Amino acid sequence: MYQSGLFAPTMREVPSDAEAASHRLMLRAGFIRQLASGVYTFLPLGWRVLRKISSIVREELDHAGAQEMLMSALQPAELWRTSGRYGAYGPELIRFKDRGDRDFVLGPTHEEVVTALVASEVNSYRQLPMTLYQIQTKFRDERRPRFGLLRGREFLMMDAYSFGADQEGLDHAYRVIYETYERIFARCGLEVRGVEADSGTIGGEGGSHEFMALADVGEDTIAFCAHCGYSANLEKAEAGRREGVQRTFPANDEETSPELVHTPGARTIDQLTAALGVTAAETIKTMLFVADGQVAAVAIRGDHGVNEIKLKRLLGTDTLEMADAETIAALAVAPAGFLGPVGLDLPLWVDFAVADMATGITGANKGEFHLRGVVPGRDFSLTRVGDLRDAEEGDPCPRCTEGSLGLRKGIEIGHVFKLGTKYSLPFHAEFADAKGAAAPVVMGCYGIGISRMMSAAAEQHHDEWGFRWPAAIAPFQAHIVPVSWKDAAQRALAEEIRRMLQDNGVETLLDDRDERLGVKLKDADLFGIPLRIVVGKRAGEGIVEYSERALPEAEAVSAADAVERCKQRAAMTYR
C-alpha cells in the first residue's frame, strides 16, 4: 500500500485524560479515535491489528476443534431473568425497551443465548461434546471508562462455550482451551501468566483462570510464588499463614482484662498508631458490611485490607457492600472508628492474621475510646475464622513451605470458567444418555478480549518514539521509506522492492509522500512496523539500509538481501 493514500491522521498533542501509553500512542499514530467515553472507532491501521489478532484466535480455536458462529448482540431480557443474572449483573448491563415495551439488553456476554440455543437443538449424547465460539462486539456500561481500549463500554471479544456429558468432558475441554490460549498469546508476542481467579458474575463452582498480560498499567494485581509457580489474581490469592505461629496469652490470663484507653479523635488507624505509639500490625480494625441486607462484622489487622471478593464468597451472598454511616448509626453500637469486636452483638468474621495475634488494640464500642490488651479467642469469639484479607508482598506461599509471594500488575485479556450446570439447569439444556436417561449438559465458557489484547501488546511493546509491534500482529510487516520520492532512482528501487515483497506475501507499506526524511522516520517509528528499508542516495548501486524496529542499528545491504531478510522474518510469523 502507498502511504499517501493511507488514512492515518497522526496527532501531535493527545487529550490529557489519555493516561496509558497504549492509549496515547494509538491516538497519536491514528489507530483509533474516540466517539464517546469508552467508545472508539478503529481506523485502518488499528483495524488491521485487530484483524491479525482475530485471525490467530480463529486459527488456533479451529485447530482445537471449536466451531465459529455468530449470535445476536441484542438479547431478550427474559433470558437473563431465567438465569437469574438480570438483577445480579448490576448497572453495567445495558437495558432498554423496544417499541413493543419488551425488555432487552445489549450483550456483555452470551451464556444465556447459547444455552437456550443448545437446549432447543441438542437432545442426545451423540451430539456431544462440542465447542462453539464467536468474535463479536460486546457492551458494558462501565462506570469509569479509562485507559482507552483497556476499559471501554464497547469492545471486541471472542467468547466460546463447551458442552459435554460429564465433568470429565468439561475438564478435557477446559484443558484444551487453556493450552490453546497459551499458543494464541505466544503467537501474538505477549508475556502472559495464567492465574487462579474468582468466577464473578459469570458464576459456576468448577473454578476459573484468568490470563494476565504483565504490564505496570494493569488494573489487576497478580500474586505469585517463584518457587512453586503458584499464581492467582489478588481477588483470589490466598494469604499464606506463617508456619509455627504460637499464640502466647498474657500471664494470669484469667485475671487480666483489656485496658480502656482514652483516644480522642483517633478514628483512623494512622491516628490511633500516632496517639498510642504502636504499629498498625498491633491493632485490630472492625468493619461492618451489609450482605444480602444483613449486617456482619469483620475483624482484620490494622495494616491489612479486607478482600471483599473473599468475604462475599465465604458468606455465600449475592450482594455485599460496606455499611454506610447511616447504617452504623442505626445499629447504635459505636461511632465509626471506635467499633470493636469485644461484646459486639453482630455476626463476627475474623481474619486468620487476627486469630494468630497474642493481643491487639481494638475499638471499645464507645466514642473516643479503645481497648488495649484484647486477646482473640478470650475477649471475642473465633468461631468464624477465614482468609479475609488481600495477600501482600512477602507473604508465605499458600502452596509450598519454601516460597513467598511476589506481586505484579497485569491486564486481564482472557478468562476460562468451568460452569458445570449453572446455566443448563435453569434453561433445561438436557440430553438423553446412552441408557435413555435425561441429564443436564455440563458447560464451560471461555473469553478473550481481542481489543484488550491490542492494548496489552502496545503496553508491552513500545518505546518513547512509538510502537514496536510483534511481527504477527503488526499492521504491516515491512515499511519502505525512500529519502526522496522525487528522486527517480530511489523511486524506481523502492517500487521494485515493494513489488518483490508483495509477490512473496510480505505486507508492505511504501512511504511515497513528498516529506522530509525526518518526518517520514518519525512516523515510521510511531507506526512501529517491524521491518524497515530506507532507500537513499545509494539507490543507483542497489544499496539500501535495512533495520528492525526492535533493534537499535541499521545495516547497509543490497536490495536483494533486504528483500530476502524481510521474507524470512515474515515467514517466521506464521504457525
TrEMBL record:
<dbReference type="InterPro" id="IPR033730">
    <property type="entry name" value="ProRS_core_prok"/>
</dbReference>
<dbReference type="InterPro" id="IPR004500">
    <property type="entry name" value="Pro-tRNA-synth_IIa_bac-type"/>
</dbReference>
<dbReference type="InterPro" id="IPR036621">
    <property type="entry name" value="Anticodon-bd_dom_sf"/>
</dbReference>
<comment type="subunit">
    <text>Homodimer.</text>
</comment>
<dbReference type="InterPro" id="IPR036754">
    <property type="entry name" value="YbaK/aa-tRNA-synt-asso_dom_sf"/>
</dbReference>
<feature type="domain" description="Aminoacyl-transfer RNA synthetases class-II family profile">
    <location>
        <begin position="33"/>
        <end position="470"/>
    </location>
</feature>
<dbReference type="InterPro" id="IPR050062">
    <property type="entry name" value="Pro-tRNA_synthetase"/>
</dbReference>
<protein>
    <recommendedName>
        <fullName>Proline--tRNA ligase</fullName>
        <ecNumber>6.1.1.15</ecNumber>
    </recommendedName>
</protein>
<dbReference type="InterPro" id="IPR045864">
    <property type="entry name" value="aa-tRNA-synth_II/BPL/LPL"/>
</dbReference>
<keyword id="KW-0963">Cytoplasm</keyword>
<keyword id="KW-0030">Aminoacyl-tRNA synthetase</keyword>
<dbReference type="Pfam" id="PF03129">
    <property type="entry name" value="HGTP_anticodon"/>
</dbReference>
<dbReference type="InterPro" id="IPR044140">
    <property type="entry name" value="ProRS_anticodon_short"/>
</dbReference>
<keyword id="KW-0067">ATP-binding</keyword>
<keyword id="KW-0648">Protein biosynthesis</keyword>
<dbReference type="InterPro" id="IPR002316">
    <property type="entry name" value="Pro-tRNA-ligase_IIa"/>
</dbReference>
<dbReference type="InterPro" id="IPR023717">
    <property type="entry name" value="Pro-tRNA-Synthase_IIa_type1"/>
</dbReference>
<keyword id="KW-0547">Nucleotide-binding</keyword>
<dbReference type="GO" id="GO:0004827">
    <property type="term" value="F:proline-tRNA ligase activity"/>
</dbReference>
<keyword id="KW-0436">Ligase</keyword>
<dbReference type="Pfam" id="PF04073">
    <property type="entry name" value="tRNA_edit"/>
</dbReference>
<dbReference type="InterPro" id="IPR004154">
    <property type="entry name" value="Anticodon-bd"/>
</dbReference>
<dbReference type="InterPro" id="IPR002314">
    <property type="entry name" value="aa-tRNA-synt_IIb"/>
</dbReference>
<comment type="function">
    <text>Catalyzes the attachment of proline to tRNA(Pro) in a two-step reaction: proline is first activated by ATP to form Pro-AMP and then transferred to the acceptor end of tRNA(Pro). As ProRS can inadvertently accommodate and process non-cognate amino acids such as alanine and cysteine, to avoid such errors it has two additional distinct editing activities against alanine. One activity is designated as 'pretransfer' editing and involves the tRNA(Pro)-independent hydrolysis of activated Ala-AMP.</text>
</comment>
<comment type="similarity">
    <text>Belongs to the class-II aminoacyl-tRNA synthetase family. ProS type 1 subfamily.</text>
</comment>
<dbReference type="Pfam" id="PF00587">
    <property type="entry name" value="tRNA-synt_2b"/>
</dbReference>
<dbReference type="InterPro" id="IPR006195">
    <property type="entry name" value="aa-tRNA-synth_II"/>
</dbReference>
<dbReference type="InterPro" id="IPR007214">
    <property type="entry name" value="YbaK/aa-tRNA-synth-assoc-dom"/>
</dbReference>
